[in-house]
Specification:
By secondary structure, the chain is mainly beta. It has three helices and 23 strands.
């Protein structure tokens, strides 16, 4: 009887398809776009869309969303997703016949089943590998063959790590050059309560002043109007301090000498169709980038650019962030 009962038992409910390594799941967002959800046993999560290779969510164990995504974001081609971490490649900005900020953020990426090894960090258990290669249409507008490998990982303390590796695979011996940015949108309580430390005294190009070059004069960067600046030779560590939430984002970067700071403020917000009129108050872009000096690769050469984000409680003394705990820690 036991055997008969077993034979007539309903088949097990199929589980969601899993990717390697463990703790990943393939899912679809409300718009139908494929995404990979990274789940760390300690409660940290991140989401990566195959469209654009774009991180669109990052949460630590308390569950608060740390990245900004507009309520009006469009999750379908041909446009980029407004928020998260769009990837700007092979150009940042608008030049020549390429679309603004390049095409990588508007293409469908694939899961990379056989990525070349990265340096081993045994503390990192949860990561996803994606790859982008040019289509025939891409080669018409940017005639270079490449392999762009992307790894998104969650660190042992809930940090978000994004590593890009771009290789020149031209068969005709030609080098190519590109500019690049991780167009990172941070979620903040109120832009008027935010300051950036680590960029003071640096030279910058002001995109609101015909890209003229200036030197930053303030002790820290605060926000009272539209800002669109490219800071040059920025340090490897930058702090974004949200006074109201008593939270500090620590941005660490490698291979990316510049840093873009952008907030559209009220007038510009009203001209952006996939952005709410008042959403500028809850977001700030601080973007590790290589803009002033393009990166050049010969065939067979590879470039690596890395972004690491941490969200930590702010430490105050007389209302100021303790730099030894964040900027120099």
């Amino acid at each position: 009887m036991a055997g008969a009962a077993s034979a007539s038992s309903p088949p097990p409910t199929p589980k969601s398809p899993k990717l390697q390594p463990p703790l990943l799941e393939r899912a679809k967002g409300p718009s139908g776009l494929d995404k990979i959800v990274l789940r760390d046993p300690r409660g940290f999560t991140a989401e990566v869309r195959l469209y654009g290779g774009q991180v669109t969510s990052w949460k630590k164990d308390h569950g608060d969303e740390l990245l900004f995504v507009s309520n009006k974001a469009i999750f379908k081609s041909p446009g980029a997703i407004r928020g998260g971490i769009p990837i700007c490649f092979p150009q940042f900005g608008t030049h020549g016949n390429l679309e603004k900020h390049g095409f990588a953020r508007n293409r469908l990426w694939s899961i990379d089943d056989n990525p070349p090894p990265l340096p081993v960090n045994t503390a990192i258990k949860t990561f996803a590998d994606l790859i982008l290669k040019p289509s025939e249409e891409d080669l018409k507008i940017w005639p270079h063959s490449f392999e762009f490998r992307l790894r998104v990982a969650l660190g042992p303390k809930g940090d978000l790590l994004v590593t890009s590796r771009i290789r020149n695979t031209n068969a005709d011996g030609r080098p190519f050059s590109f500019t690049f940015a991780y167009h990172t949108y941070f979620s903040v309580s109120d832009i008027s309560e935010v300051r950036i430390e680590g960029l003071e005294t640096l030279d910058y190009f002001d995109n609101l002043q015909d890209k003229k070059r200036y030197t930053e004069q303030g002790d820290a960067i605060v926000f009272e109007s539209e800002v669109d600046k490219i800071y040059l030779d920025a340090p490897p560590k930058i702090a974004i301090i949200d006074h109201e939430k008593k939270r500090t984002f620590v941005l660490r970067k490698d291979g990316l000498p510049d840093a873009v700071v952008w907030n559209p403020w009220d007038k510009k917000s009203k001209t952006i169709p996939d952005f709410g009129d008042e959403e500028y108050k809850q977001m700030l872009c601080v973007e590790p980038a290589a803009v002033e000096k393009p990166i050049t690769l010969k065939p067979g050469e590879e470039w690596k650019g890395r972004l690491e984000l941490s969200a930590v409680p702010s430490s105050y003394y007389s209302g100021q962030l303790d730099p030894d705990k964040v900027l120099h820690g």
